[in-house]
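Notes continue from the previous slide.

Worked example: a multi-chain complex. Inputs as given:
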Amino acid sequence: MRFVDTLAKSTKQIKHQNMFKIESKDVHLHYGAFHALKGINMSIEKNTVTALIGPSGCGKSTFLRLFNRMNDLIDDVRIEGKCLIDGKDIYSKEVKIDDLRKRVGMVFQKPNPFPKTIFENVAYGLRVNGISHKSFIEERVERSLKQAALWDEVKDKLKKSAMALSGGQQQRLCIARALAIEPSVLLMDEPASALDPISTAKIEELIYELKNDFTIIIVTHNMQQAGRISDTTAFFYLGELVEVDSTKKIFTNPNDTRTQNYITGRFG
Amino acid sequence: MEKPDISRKRLAEAIAFWIFRLLSLGVMGILFSILGFILYKGIHVVNWDFITKMPEDGMTKGGIYPAIIGTLCLISGSMLFAFPIGVMSGIYINEYTKDSWYRRFVQLMTANLAGIPSIVFGLFGMSLFVNKLGFGDSIIAGSLTLGLLALPVIIRTTEEALKSVDEGYRHASLALGATKLQTIRRVTLPVALPNIITGFILSIGRVSGETAPILFTVAAYFLPKLPSSMHDQVMALPYHLYVISTSGTNINESRGMAYGTAVVLILIVLILNLIANAVRRYLGKKYKTN
């Protein structure tokens, strides 16, 4: 009987692994006395783009940061529930936080390249993870910059400071930097909100391409952007996940009136 | 509606501006008059012999070479001790402690350390380094005492320098799987380094001019030879200045020597500041953040 139980469990796990890349199960998060996430359940399939939308302070960025444990940096945070990547609880004791972050890349709202050369920015993740083989690093830097559609613009000035790049280029550099360590998940926290429309279009195009190799979660304030780039959209409101469905469904025929009101611009 | 009295507003603005300007010019004026006075009185004494010869005739003639070397020994000794410890303490406070009563307690204690009169450091250094640890009157005892004095400045400026580093850098580094130590070593510290060097400059200025802490721990009244090890006594510029102005063999005769010594002391601090500033600029350019 016990054996059958275990067997059932393991097949269930395998099935899970095949179906969902990322899952959150009844996740609650408190900042001190503030209840920021209220029982979030969500499952995200591999190689999809999921957009998190909702008004400021609704918890979408907090939810995003669960998956590379950036919330851990904040004092006085309490997390309950389960966050799974590839079926494994990323908050369990066996998980080393730097190993997790190697697998789950992140791009921030404000482009934040290091005050180093363009090359060293992309190589950084490799170096801190103990890779020092020169030609390997060179190859990987080139590949990542190509993936981030930045190579042609910077290939002649890899030794120049990243600070000399434009905001849009800096953000693509940050994407290249995240890609260099080959994560399987990419978290993006309003990656285009500080950029001009042309740079934004480039980033969006890029996200569409990257979907083939990565599972992407993106926080955005821009409804059109969510509509253009995502497969699934999740609407957060006051710490709750109000609705998650295919982007098409959310934008044409949402189930919840709050979603309807938000996407049609009645509040937010 | 009442007509706003613009002319009065403008007048107040102009008066405030001129008060601020005059006061800051006044401060600069004080600095320049001190420098000018010392230079006027002392510069004619300073020549090659003065900085390379031993004192002669009861310190009324000859040079101040051993005091220059002594002061340089004490500056480098104290910095060698205080700079790494101070920077590491600053890193600990800003990067490793949370904003809690504990951090505030450590900060308060550091601030208190800075408020202790330097003569007390001198007495402490004498009882701990000279007597208890048995170093005797020596460069090492003097350097450690001066180092203690410099610590709070270095800790405080390191803390401030780290605090001003954009949080985005730390997050970016951690998000790439770097550990906290890697983040500090490869990103946070290099970015903060130019400002940390400011603390270094400030403490060199402080250390090189202090007399009280070296009085009982290292300084020699008259010692016309160079130190051969860390355990030797040395002459030092500020103490030498004190000696030949107050208790020399012939105070009137050595008056010129005293001003010359002051000029050399000021020049040493100035030169060290210029060097440190050049390093600061170089690093600032290398890790330019905008």
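Summary box: The longest strand of chain A covers residues 20-31. Chain A has eleven helices and ten strands.
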